[in-house]
Every structure is written in structure tokens, then in C-alpha cells.
Amino acid sequence: MAASCSRQQVCILGSTGSIGKSTLDVIARNPEQFAVHSLVAGVNWQVMLEQVRQFRPRYVVMNDEQAAKALRASLGAFDTEVYVGVDAMVQLASDPEVDVVMAAIVGAAGLAPTMAAVHAGKKILLANKETLVITGSLFMEAVKTSGSVLLPIDSEHNAIFQCLPSGYGAGLEQVGVRRILLTASGGPFRQSPVASFPSVTPEQACAHPNWSMGRKISVDSATMMNKGLEFIEACWLFNARPEQIDVVIHPQSIIHSMVDYEDGSVLAQLGNPDMRTPIAHALAWPRRIPSGVAPLSLADIGKLEFQAPDMARYRCLKLAQDAARSGGTAAAMLNAANEIAVDAFLHRKLRFDRIPEVIDATLQTLPVMNASDLEQVMAADRQARSTAQQQVAHAQNAS
């Protein structure tokens, strides 16, 4: 694909993951409007090689030196430049030629390049919820100061964005909104006995009934920590207080979220469970473009179900809601402890039912501090990771 100044130049942070692949699919369907400027990934150079062959980006960054070497050796005649490391990611995310940055690197690893894109005033498509969860007010203040455009990619937040009126940043009450209804599928264990949780395997936890996602986010969906992080994220994105957001279990994942107005109206955004819909919406906003998603057939679906979440089943959701109410560094510590616990579970070093135990013990051990600057937040992140590692070791010894 030859570069064209009439097309928006897109940098994808996390191009080899599910969100990155879906973004490239949408771009491929709209080649007259978008071009791939640069791609960023971790270690999967084989997938990156195929992406380079198809989209011809000017630059690629791998987070692993060996992966970068293997990619360079396989590129042959392609003139794509390959770099390594976070500094190169930061440079590309803030490159003057880039118009749009898809922030889809999972976890805290995506923080630095995403913040660089914000400070550079880019149009940010935010799929990395941890960035906003960790930095909160610092991130939103940077968006406001830089004039960056921030558009949510999570299907739930994108749905809320589509259902809210303009001016919601002044406060939901100011635009007649009573509450936000954040929907959740309930994950693969919605109907499983809680007593069976100690024997849950990583393979079972990663088998989401509706969505195709990476392993970490799939486990977060199974524990409902994913919804907890989305709860925190929604508070920041939409200037909402925790008590203005309700979580509703909706197993079909057809209604992606709703907004309840003071006059009794409830607006909902519906669609098939396919991430290309919110990606296409955000890429083209305020216009609409083809996404490749099949039309929704309510007749085929037949029924839509709703229920309140059982907090005894979804302890991680409760922990996240409590962190949102605590403020300060609580959310950053929650996220850090969760990343450590989920990684231990995926490596079979921690039982599934002990993920919330590790997070809770970490939060009980560490004090909540004011999140006045990024270094303070990152210090809390590091401290929580260390404490969570100790809690994982303790849980292993107790097994």
C-alpha cells in the first residue's frame, strides 16, 4: 500500500493481538481512507511478517531483540524499518506523520507509548483499559491539555459513548443522565458451581462463550475483573461517580451497554459480538464505514436475558468497584496485583479461585496514596507487583 497524504496514517500498538488484527481487517476494507504507518508488537514476528507483507508499514517495533532479528532476516526486499524496545514505540506513537494511534497493548506495558501519543495530540483509539485504570486523572488531564481526541474501543464503552449526548464531560446530571448500565456476559462460569472454581484450568477460563480474545483478558472476563476494570475506566471516560454506574449480566452480549435518562428513556447500542464494530466506529468517527460485521438478526437471537451480578461468584468485580471508590493509587495496585495473579494462574502456579484472594491480600497490605504524579503511580504499581508475588508464593505453599 503506497502512502497517501489524503489517507489517515494509523499506528497500531499491539498489531499481532486480536484487537490489532481486527483493526487491520477494518483498514483493509477501507483502503481509500486509511493507511498503516507503523506496527508494534511483542514477540510474534511470524504474524508481524504477514502483516508487513500485506500492509507495507514504514516502521515496525518488536519488544524483543530476537524477534526483531528474525523479522529483519525474513523481510527480504521489503523496505520496512524494524526497531526494538519501548523507546522506539514511544517515538512512533508520537511521530508527526501519524494521525491515529490504536492503543491495544495488553497491560501496563502499553502505558508509555499511549501517553506519548496523548501528549502529541493524536486521535487515540483506547483498547488498553489498564492505561486509564492506572493513571486515571493524570491521563484525562493530559488528554484535555494536549487536545487529543480519545475514543473508547471496548465494546461497552464505545456503546456508552454512542448513547450519551454531547457535553457529558460537565457531569452526567448536567445532560439529564441518571445512570450508566454496563453490561457483562458473565463469562464461561456464569452457571458453574462456585465450589468447582478451585479445579478450573487455564484452558477452561480462556474459552469465552461469545468473544474471541487474548488469554489474559479471557481470564479477566472469567473472573469479571475485566468488567471491574471497565467500571473504573467508565468513571474516568464519562466523568461518572461509581454510584452512577450499574453492572448488568447479559449473557448474549448483544446489548453492549445502555444509558438511562432522567425522563425514563433508556438508550442501548446493539450489535453482533464483533470488535470490528467499535473499531470501525472509532476509526471513522464521526462518520460510519463498513466493518465486515454481519447484520444483527434479533429474530434469530430470540431472547435477551439480564440479571444482577452475584458478588460471591464475582469477587474481582467487587474489589474493582471498591478500588474505584477509594481513588488514589488503589486502582493501579488492583491492576498490578491482578496481572501478577492471572499470569501465575496461566502458568499453573495459582488456583483460579485464589486470584481474588491474592488481589485482596495485596490491597489490604498496602496503603492507598494520592496519585498526584506518574512516578507515584508507577511506584505503587511496582510495590503492588512485588507484594502480589509474595502472596502468590504464600498461596503456593498453602496448597
Could you name the key traits of this structure?
alpha/beta; 4-stranded mixed beta sheet; 7-stranded parallel beta sheet; 11 strands; 399 residues; 15% strand
> What is the spatial order of strands in the main beta sheet?
4-3-2-1-5-6-7
Structural class assignment: alpha/beta
Question: Roughly how many Å is the radius of gyration?
Answer: 21 Å
What's the tally of helices? 17
Helix proportion: 40-55%
Mean pLDDT: 94
Q: Largest sheet at a glance?
A: 7 strands, parallel
* Unreliable residue runs: none
Give the overall silhouette: globular
Q: What percent strand?
A: 5-15%
The strand count comes to 11
Instruction: Return the string of H and E elements.
Output: EHEHEHEHEHEHHEHEHHHEEEHHHHHH
From the N-terminal CA to the C-terminal CA, the straight-line distance is: 55 Å
Structural commentary:
- With 399 residues, this protein is an alpha/beta fold.
- Helices cover 45% and strands 15% of the residues.
- The strands form two sheets. A seven-stranded parallel β-sheet has the order 4-3-2-1-5-6-7, sandwiched between helices. A four-stranded mixed β-sheet has the order 9-8-10-11, with helices on one face.
- The radius of gyration is 21 Å and the shape is globular.
- The protein starts with 7 loop residues before the first strand and ends with a helix.
- The model has no long low-confidence stretch (mean pLDDT 94).
